[in-house]
Amino acid sequence: MARRRKSAVNMMDKNHVEGISIDDRLQWQTMFKEGEITLAELESRIANAGKVVAKGKKKGINKKQHALRNHRGRLELTLSRNDEKDKTVLSIMLISCRDMLPMNSKGSADPHIKLQFEPPIKSKGKKLKEQKTAKRANTRNPIFTEAFNWDIHQPAELKGVRLIISAFSGKEFMGRMAFPLTTIPNSRSPLTGWFKWLGEERGMGSNIQDLNRNKAQRPNVARKSSSSVSLDAPRGDSTLKRELSRRPLPTPPPKGAAGADGPSVPKRKPVPAPVESPPPLPTTSSSSVTQRQQQQLLQKQQQQQQQ
Questions:
Q1: pLDDT tens, residue by residue, 231-265
Q2: Contact between residue 135 and residue 198 where contact means Cβ atoms under 8 Å apart
Q3: What is the spatial distance between Cα 95 and Cα 97, in angstroms, rounded to a whole number?
Q4: What angle do CA 29, 78, 135 make, to 5 degrees?
Q5: Are 278 and 305 in contact (CB under 8 A)?
Q6: Residue 204: strand, helix, or coil
């Protein structure tokens, strides 16, 4: 693997004069180091660089093929605005592009980028002219690194105005994107990232950020879960929180078993109230109470107990 990697780099240096531009060579090396392309893809790009398209095929691509192309490459830029008392300063940095459309028989292009406002706006009575980058020859991965600034002295005209960014190879259209001026953030937190090149009509009113590419550049941030954070763990102690999150949650004890509040006490059955025994009969002497009187007294006591 190390030999293949070294040989691929040597091939780029060797074939630089034969058909690989400086921009392509630098971009391919960066894409390979960042893991965007594999070693096999890098070797394939080097082997096919500068090859002429087979006879019978048209040079470049026609208008119908342009309309069907979904992958037009992407542009890396930084865009911001600074609102002052009497003017608005708009700044943009065009860094580089990757995997743009092939526009000639060698599968390459000569791209440059144009910047203009739609609808046109004026500053101090003068119409702001369009600006453009230098042309990068024989590459589909141009590196521009060019900055542009505009001083707009009438901020009220920013409503409904879009900054149109278009890419061309000579006079042939390659891609487009648009940014409404009112949505451009402040210079303290500029808009930075990769944006996809769109078609002519779609690119006049919108832009699509390449989220997969921008996400790969940002560090992964783990989502916090309420079940994995303990209230007893101190803040900032990530190690303790991870250990607590791995512990299984306690299950409620079954009925009749010992729970978190101590051993459970079984319910007692209600005890019936004791039955009072009849009071003892009074003792009488045989001389004063006859047998008949004892029977009458016993009957009265039984009637009272029944009531």
A1: 333 344 455 455 555 555 555 555 555 544 455 55
A2: no
A3: 7
A4: 60
A5: yes
A6: helix
